[in-house]
Amino acid sequence: MNVNIPFFYYQREYKNIRADLQKAAGDVFASGRFILGDHLKSFEQQFAQFCGAPFAVGVASGTDALTLALLACRLKPGDEVITVANGAYPTIVGIVRAGLRPVFVDICPETWLMDSKQIAGACSKKTKAIIPVHLFGNMVDMKALSKSAKTKKLIVIEDACQAHGGILDKKKAGTFGRFGCFSFYPTKNLGAFGDGGAIIMHRQKDYNALRQSRNYGQSDRYNHPVFGLNSRLDELQAAYLSVKLKYLKRWNQWRSHLAHLYREHLKKIDEISMPCINPLSRQTHHLFVIRVKKRNALQAHLAKQGIMTLIHYPIPAHRQKAFLGLGYKAGDLPHTERCCREILSLPISPFLKPSEVRTICSLIEGYYKKNTRS
Ligand SMILES: Cc1ncc(COP(=O)(O)O)c(C=O)c1O
Q: Residues 166-175: pLDDT tens digits?
């Protein structure tokens, strides 16, 4: 049997909102303005409101959002930033590009997210910031984290690139720290048709600084009082994102429905574990992740049936060749390393059907029935 289920249904999404997208593109072309215009202004206001933050600044990617947020903190070269190694590689790129040094703490074996209990032990005199990553769309325990960060006087910058619309204790993802960073990479819960990102924040001073630093550090034409990058969310992407933002709450609810279906089916299979979810939180279900001992064999079996799965992520950042110079060895982050060996992402997206989730689950069930018998 070949069921042909992709990881993400771009075509179904496009078909659903085609007319809105075409109108949005037409408006941008007719305006004759493609950079830093009204579509960006309007999207930034809508996104800030969606996130429950006073300000949002659109930038060129999630990686740039992290880099620019860190640069705005005006830390010294070589200062240390605590984060996790099982997250997306670009989080670390953002830290290094801001001239800072990543320091990794292990994950909590139950949630597979940053373990706040590890923070105090990872701090040195140079530790100045912490980046919790709401990986898979699951919220890090921000209450415990904020307490440790306050004790150690660390600036908190949330990597909310997988958590658009996540809520913990009635607060939205990205609003717990000084900055919240988002990616609009096409597969994200709110995805552009190309690259894009945003930073949300509370302080007017940070807002002013970031509006300059994403645009060559320019205050007004020909004047550059501070150093900055070229990192702007363009008008076309902003217009598309405004269209998609209207659907985001509904799409997140649908993901949640599908995730519930997955959980109900897969909890019966002893070989599979799933992350513990904080009951005070609303997840965005960006990814539906499971863990199994022989991950590659299950992935190959599903691929043979036409089901596309992915791995987020197979190599932890501290074991990436590019970062071996940081001095970490295999075994330094045991829970992280085990998670990376076992994790597998099953398809989830707003246009996946419940019947497709059931098909995936019964194929997994069949696989384990056959393989535990033999
Ligand atoms: C957790 C996380 N952080 C950072 C990024 C970087 O975002 P971008 O690809 O937009 O630079 C991503 C997206 O890939 C991500 O998932």
A: 999 999 999 9
162 lines ligand 1 (CB under 6 A): yes
Domain boundary (200, 218, 243) is at 243
What sections of the chain are H helices per DSSP? 10-31, 38-51, 62-72, 89-97, 119-122, 142-151, 204-213, 235-266, 295-304, 334-342, 354-373
Indicate yes or no: pTM above 0.85.
Answer: yes
**234 C-alpha vs ligand 1 centroid, how far in Å?**
18
Q: How many angstroms does the Cα of residue 191 sit away from the middle of ligand 1? A: 11
Residue ranges making up the domain that contains 338? 248-373
Last residue of a domain, one of 243, 275, 306: 243
| Structure confidence by residue, pLDDT tens digits, 63-72 | 999 999 999 9
Ligand 1: residue of 183, 184, 188, 199 to mutate (most ligand atoms within 8 A of CB) is: 183
The response to whether residue 88 sits with its C-beta less than 6 Å from ligand 1 reads: yes
